[in-house]
């Protein structure tokens, strides 16, 4: 995908090559920022997570076992850093899926929205980890390319569309039938 492999860039960065480090940051900065923002962090907290993720990478340049999966490693590290910030800050905001046309929803409207949210969440949690990661990135990081999402999840880019389609179909079936399996 890239002219120069991640293994070589990581090794050069470890030896102090600023150009190699800058290339790594250039390749993956948007991914790291998007994952941080997908956790509904404030811009300042997301910037802290972004910076912390790069610090963790700098401290682990020689410990990356699978350099070809650097995007997945960065995604996981960013997610962990974001969750740590949410725990420390105590700012986790509930996701409000209610976006009514009318300004004042009725109690029935709120109950229906709550039921829909609950059913959707239950169905989502029964998906495989791969499906949850794909759907999460597609929903909360729409500016990422298919290639970037595929790399973050660890599948070939040409497999992402069909895999995402299968994941959505499983989610639809589980919503319709109300089954968890």
Structural description of this entry:
Helices cover 70% and strands 0% of the residues. By secondary structure, the chain is mainly alpha-helical. The protein contains eight helices and no strands. It has helices at 6-14, 18-37, 43-59, 70-89, 107-125, 129-140, 146-153, 157-177. 23% of the residues are buried. The model is unreliable at 91-95 (pLDDT under 50). The chain is globular. Helix 1 packs across helix 2 (18-37), helix 2 packs across helix 3 and helix 3 packs across helix 4 (70-89).
Annotate the secondary structure layout.
Blueprint: H1 6-14, H2 18-37, H3 43-59, H4 70-89, H5 107-125, H6 129-140, H7 146-153, H8 157-177
Helix pairs in contact: 1-2, 2-3, 2-4, 3-4, 4-7, 6-8, 7-8
């Amino acid at each position: 995908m890239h002219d120069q492999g991640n293994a070589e860039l990581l090794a050069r960065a470890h030896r102090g090559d600023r150009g190699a480090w800058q290339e790594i940051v250039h390749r993956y900065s948007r991914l790291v920022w998007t994952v941080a923002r997908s956790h509904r962090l404030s811009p300042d907290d997301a910037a802290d997570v972004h910076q912390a993720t790069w610090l963790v990478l700098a401290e682990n340049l020689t410990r990356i076992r699978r350099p070809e999966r650097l995007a997945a490693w960065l995604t996981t590290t960013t997610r962990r850093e974001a969750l740590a910030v949410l725990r420390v800050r105590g700012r986790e905001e509930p996701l409000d899926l209610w976006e009514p046309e009318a300004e004042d929803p009725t109690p029935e409207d709120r109950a229906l929205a709550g039921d829909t949210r609950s059913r959707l969440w239950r169905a989502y949690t029964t998906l495989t980890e791969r499906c949850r990661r794909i759907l999460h990135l597609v929903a909360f990081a729409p500016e990422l390319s298919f290639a970037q999402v595929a790399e973050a999840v660890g599948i070939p880019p040409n497999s992402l569309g069909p895999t995402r389609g299968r994941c959505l179909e499983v989610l639809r079936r589980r919503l319709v039938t109300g089954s968890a399996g």
